[in-house]
Amino acid sequence: MSTTAENVAQLTDPSATTLLRFATAGSVDDGKSTLVGRLLHDSKSVLTDQLEAVEAASLKRGQEAPDLALLTDGLRAEREQGITIDVAYRYFATPRRRFILADTPGHVQYTRNMVTGASTADLAVVLVDARNGVIEQTRRHAAVAALLRVPHVVLAVNKMDLVAYEEKVFAAIAEEFTAYASELGVPEITAIPISALAGDNVVEPSANMDWYGGPTVLEHLETVPVSHDLTGCHARLPVQYVIRPQTAEHPDYRGYAGQIAAGTFRVGEAVTVLPSGRTSKVSGIDLLGESVDIAWTPQSVTLLLEDDIDISRGDLIVPSGDAPATTQDVEATVCHVADQPLTVGQRVLLKHTTRTVKAIVKEIPSRLTLDDLSQHPDPGQLVANDIGRVKVRTAEPLALDSYADSRRTGSFLLIDPADGTTLAAGMAGESFATHKAVTTVADEEGWDF
After folding, report:
1. pLDDT tens digits, one per residue of 149-185
2. Which residues contact 117 (CB under 8 A, 6 or more apart)?
3. Tens of pLDDT along 360-380?
4. Alpha-carbon distance 385 to 394, whole Å?
5. Of 237, 303, 316, which Cα lies nearest the Cα of 275?
6. What three-state secondary structure class fits 44?
7. What is the dihedral sign for C-alpha 386, 390, 395, 398?
8. What pTM value is reported for the model?
């Protein structure tokens, strides 16, 4: 089987169809990699040499049929252990839509990898083994999807062939998961009964579940509404580089280059530079070597201002009438991703867009307990894969939006200043769209900037 010319055309022509970024998640042996392999295989997105390699590897392992999970489990350790360890990205297309897929691990110790895969996803596919139902790792992945504000979640109840395709088994699991995810604030949940191994309801409708009248997984992926229009959001341009040629042709040129994170900028618009608070007007916009009157996300542009003011990498240019407040006290929800714990009083670096500042962890008010969504107060530290609330004091003011308003300018990383290790991924502001009350504790005394 080879990739069709139509699929190749869809991949190479970005304007041909819309793009959907989605991530898969689930517990160990729930069949995530098999589902991904089935999607690729049945949508004719597998190259001939790839399929031949999978068939050969499957035969060596004593399997009669190709193990489609091997299409995504590319690391040697993954193939040997039969598990997913790293995030595997796959790109494929159908005539209706292009896809970027992130196949994320199921082991508890690799939950942090799901944060990487789902951080830019428009949709998350959470797999559940029909024999086991909703378990703790299922709730953990639902919580991560909710924290990251993934707008669409698909519950894929897999291995329906092992429960005789019974509707009541699917209905009970769907009801339990939907209630849990709704409490977290997930805006849209779609439940689909499947068998990734047999191909039921993955690409083609199943003849074994005539009681189900909904879409297949691929049909849902092709038709779910996806909006990448961030032009109506708060306009934000993190400055990456200051361009000063100082040549005979451009002796006084001073431009501020970067990728527009959200919103739209226009020539003549009043803007404010943060954190300094200095104001000016946009005198020109350069885009791909041409002057334009308007630019929008995600274009990479160079803004020219009427006034010569002090601007450097890490500053944020925003409309004067829509400027976020600057602060040195950051309250956020974080997912801890490092092996070493995050502790109160720890000195870290905080990276927000193009700006990196020194910071101290002043308080860890709570750690999320996934069983009942309660908050364990004052845990003192967060360890790998923990999700918790933190209060951080920065050495310099930052202009953060709420993560609920902007996934781009409301997110940040906490970094170990000693070796550059990423410690935690943070989301500023409130955590879930709806959440249980957090037990509050008094502020810790400690270092002050």
Report:
1. 999 999 999 999 999 999 999 999 999 999 999 988 8
2. 23, 25, 87, 102, 103, 104
3. 999 999 998 866 677 889 999
4. 24
5. 316
6. coil
7. positive
8. 0.79
